[in-house]
Each structure stands twice: as structure tokens, then as C-alpha cells.
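Two quick folds needed for the group meeting slides. Do the first one here.
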Amino acid sequence: MAHLAVNERKEKMGELSATPTADIGSVSTQLQSSVLMALPKKPTLKRALEKKRRRLQTASDSTTLPPPPTDTTFSMPQEFHYMISHDSGSDDDRLIIMGSSELLDGLARAKLWLADGTFKAIPPILFQVYAIHFELVPGVNPVAIYCLVQNKSNGPFSCT
């Protein structure tokens, strides 16, 4: 069953274009604890998934992403609508929340949530990106939600 779970993770990663950590989280939320215990150690699993991800990226290099947005009136391309949980619209306080239903389900059942924010790896038209992680199993903390915030005073964690 552990081998089947690893293969399922590889397939899921290909479908979702997910990172290995996100993939581990989305598939592991549906596995029984006996199967989770039989899986390879996290570094070994991440290495195998990263290798699969590189192969998938090489095969799909012909697919191009749209150019980065230059103002807040941009609209999300149709092929990415499946990952948008909320978009407040194109006003001056735009908030975009992204996540997958599998990971949101894991977040809902988790006993521990972790939140982090960064100002560095974000398009210049936005202010900050927040990531909300959850503990799936000890040592595995996938991101369930990304929040792209344009204005710090009206973000999901603002004090105003």
C-alpha cells in the first residue's frame, strides 16, 4: 500500500503541478496511519517526488505562463480558477486566497496551524503573501492556503 501511495503522490503532483511538500500533504490527508508509517522517510520521499517534478517540467516546457500582472485590475487566467478560493476584486485592497480542497480539508482537521508571511517573493503590485500551514504528521507541514495581500492594513491578519 505504501508503494501505491508513493505512485499516487507522483500522479497527483503531475495533475496539480504541486511542490513535493504540498503533494505529500494533499495525498497524505487521505491515507490511513498504518500506510503513513510504512512510507519512506521524508527526505527520501521528497527526493523521489522532486525528480518526478523535474521530469514533468522538462516535458511541459512548451507551456508558457502568462506575464506577471502590472496593476491590480488583472484578471486570473481561466486555467488557474480551480485554485482560487477567494478574490476580493480589483480594488485598492485586493485579497486573493488560494488553496486546494484536499489541503483545506487537512487544515480543517489539523490540531496545529502555522502561519508565515513574506515581503520578498511577491509581485510588486501586492504587499505581502501569507502562508497557512498545518501539521499533517510530525515533520510534515504542507501549506493549505496562500493569501496574497495588497494592503497591509486590510490583510487577513491585520489588527485594524
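Then this one, please, same format:
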Amino acid sequence: MKKGWRGYVSSRAINGQMIPQRVQNLVMRTYAEKSGIRYLLSATEYHIPGSFMMLESLYDGLAGLEGLLFYSMHQLPEMPADRRRLYATLRKAGCGLRFALEELKVETAADAGVVEDALICRALSRRADLSVLSRR
């Protein structure tokens, strides 16, 4: 029997902002209540830049979960191949993926495509911002 949705919070900046873990957990708990899902204690990612050790450690326990609940989609690994591995691992385990801040669900490949499109737009926006700043 699947127990619920395991939370995933970060001790690093998310999309350039430091969000206290307490706030991340509060947002996820509120989202879970509103969505009618059972929210389980969060795993906290290490502060090490580029590290996803805690996220990857969750893969072993997916059989007992309905899915993973992230605070934000901006916690996803930066490398597209790492994100595709996450989506595939969750799909293989019959688990979902949700993002509380954006109120998004990833249940299909098309849903993952929406998240990927948003991340690409963010990356392009950052590049455009940098090019404007470098002209000043």
C-alpha cells in the first residue's frame, strides 16, 4: 500500500532566493491539505551546489509512495538528462510528481513537457537579462 507523498525541500537558494525550510514545508502542507493528499515528512537536500544526493536517495523508497512533492519546480536538477531520469524513475515506480508553489502535477510525459518548457523559458529569460546588463 502506498503511504502518501514525500516532501522535498532545499537548504540552497531556489530560483535565486533563500526560502526557509519552515516556509517550504508550510507551503507544501497547505497544498497537500487543499489537494486532499497525505503529506509525509520532507527530505532536505544538502547545501552542496549541484548536489542531489537526498533526492536520489528517495528513489529506493518510491515503491511505498504515491509520489514526490517538491516545494517548487525550480528545485529540479539543472541538467535536462538528470530531470529526464527523475521523470522516468517516477513513472517506472508508478509515482507522481507535484510542485506546491506552482500548483503543478506531473502525471504524464506531456505534463513533464510543460515543466520543461517553463524551465527553458526561465533559462532564456536569464540569458536575455544578462545580455541587456552587459550592454550597459
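Slide caption for protein two: DSSP finds four helices and five strands in the chain.
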